[in-house]
């Protein structure tokens, strides 16, 4: 299936008229003579989990960087809620409502859970204490952090005053996902969220992904773990050699077929 065809696949609900939240059209990105992306298109619809899979060098990371402002595509266009956008840096994407949780998490171990949720977005006390003396509203942020964690169904982080360095890998991932969910009003991007986690912690993260979808927040999931992808994804975008090989669903293809397409052993 070509990029042009995959980009016009109907939305998961079957309503082809539904507008994508985030759409990429014919993205091209080169690094000297190396082609990172070769005319890749992608569409993310409201309330869905779109997985992106591909072998090493397939262009997954480059695609995500172009979607989130870490790289600027040489050609093609991005649309957010149907409007053209141009992200020159990750902060531009964050301000537009696209939050990314990278594999290295980017949490601050010395800070507590609440402080990490509001990292870079600290709220100040009301009145002169906040406006003049710039006093941080620690109590208010902790209350909001508890509410956010409860809404996401995260029961393993009941104490938001605990430093992140004392948490397990799965709990740290939960903090990073919760931060993205709290501020990613339009799209949450998860880059290999279960790569360094055990079975139990991976299950907790997958439940978080499902909870985000239940809340109506669309998720882009990058993962090498096929069972995890097939458990939570509504659609699966397969990258190969800088192009989109095809877009499938867990109902239309098996894991074996997805891997075969990803490696080139089978055509779409």
TrEMBL record:
The keyword Nucleotide-binding applies. Keywords: ATP-binding, Nucleotide-binding. Residues 8-19 have a biased composition (Polar residues). This is Sugar ABC transporter ATP-binding protein. Residues 22-266 form the ABC transporter domain. It comes from Arthrobacter agilis. One of its GO terms (molecular function) is ATP hydrolysis activity. Residues 1-20 are annotated as: Disordered.
